[in-house]
Amino acid sequence: MFKSIFQELAQLVSLRSLRARIFLFILLAGVVPCVFMRYAILDNYEERAAAQREATVRNQLLVVGNHLLSNNYFQTRPSEEAGYSSASRDVIDAELEVISNLYEGRVLIVDSSLKVVKDTYGISEGKTMISEEVIQCFQGETSSYYDKEHGYIEMTLPIEDSGAVSAQDGQDTGRIVGVMLTSISNESIVTTMEVLNRQAVLLENLMFVCVVAIALVASMGLTRPLSQVTDAINKVQAGYAQESISVPGYSETVHIVDAFNQLLKRMKALDDTRQEFVANVSHELKTPMTSVKVLADSLLAQEDAPAELYREFLSDIVSEIDRENQIINDLLALVRMDKKVQELNIASVNINELTELILKRLRPIARKKDVELVFESMRQVTAEVDEVKMTLIMTNLVENAIKYNKEHGWVKVELDADHQYFTFQVSDSGLGIPEDALTHIYERFYRVDKSHSREIGGTGLGLAITKSAVLMHHGAIKVSSVEGEGSCFVVKIPLTYIEQ
Questions:
Q1: Residue 351 banded pLDDT, cuts 50, 70, 90
Q2: How far apart are CA 55 and CA 64, in angstroms?
């Protein structure tokens, strides 16, 4: 149990793991919004609380400002003015003190001569207050400023006498007779924010634990089908399972399983082909050796055998050895072509001359079987090919057409080209190939009619070698045949060799 948990944690540490990436994605998707939300809520609360506190203080100061005007607070000699008493001034001062104490701040009253007539702290009364905010406020511009770093709200509020009358036209002019400069503390806001922040952090930690648990469970659940696929493949690799695997789950895992099953089928087919190839090679190599041994044993069993019999048996032994040697040479040629490192000696070759030379070599075989060999060239063809392997392709196709032909038959070789490819076509009036055998003729040691093929000769490797040589030139080979009427092989090879 602990080992499996350790393995899970090790996979989560490695970011190369899909499980780790899913875990990290879910973790970030769950935690990061919570952190941003906490800071956003606290900032929004602070701004709203500061704005509300400022509005409340402003409303109360407006009330006090009206009292200042109604009681002629700014008169220099209040005892001579009607309607003013020291008791009213005391009441207004008391109101200002209450506001100052309530909001843990300071209120200064500045008259039109920029003189401080009231300071709730009692340290600036009688002094001149020259500041940008006060001067702008006398010009009709109010201001407010929230200093988060030092923890206070500062605002200026004009005291406007809207009942003043112009001496010229008798209209209400509404002049500013004073300014209230207020500074209040935001300590209560900060205290509330600290409480909210502690609660938010507690909730955030709780959510972090929940998100980690959800991310762990989700990452393990989402990647479980992939682990099942891996386990199934490991069983096949270890030899515990040979059949196709099946892991129902996501469509992606189904595609992976289908691809693996196709690969498994391909590997089984290759393994079957290899086993069949080994069996065929063993049989083909064993047959001549068996014949040689039988002939040799027959000679040894006859003590007084005549010389003619020795000559006959030795001639048969030589034939079998030649056949064995041909099989070995064809196998070596096929192995060399199967190697990926096989290099082609590409050169510019006159295909017409090469074809005529090959047909000249094969005409004695055709005359021996009374087969007419015809060559028809549509145009002069020069291509970049490996001359040795091109000779192998042409020789195998034409020789097969002659060998597997009828008496008094014919073989026609046609050469043509376009701007990209040249075509080498061999058609005959021979035995033909059954339709069900057309897909197997390029397999090694495959013979359509084994008994007839053994009489004619050959190793069953000719077409396999031919196809390999064609593919090395990036070409293609096609066949069409009707049993009893003949066959037609068409080889198409690029005029210019392009190394891929």
A1: very high
A2: 14
The answer to whether 125 and 119 are in contact (CB under 8 A) is yes
In sign, the C-alpha dihedral spanning 413, 414, 417, 420 is negative
Residues in the chain: 500
Cross-strand pairs, 462: none
- State the pTM of this model: 0.45
> What domains are defined for the chain?
252-338 (1.10.287.130), 346-494 (3.30.565.10)
pLDDT confidence of residue 416: 94
Residue entry with tokens 């590997």:
267
Summarised one tens digit per residue, pLDDT across range 110-133 is 888 888 888 888 888 888 888 888
Q: What CA–CA distance (Å, rounded) separates 248 from 225?
A: 8
Is-contact 155 142, C-beta < 8 A?
yes
Please give the share of the chain, as a percent, with pLDDT higher than 90. Answer: 15
* pLDDT given for residue 192 in this prediction: 86
For residue 285, give both structure tokens.
């190599």
* Chain segment 72-115, per-residue pLDDT in tens: 777 644 444 444 556 777 888 888 888 888 888 888 898 888 88
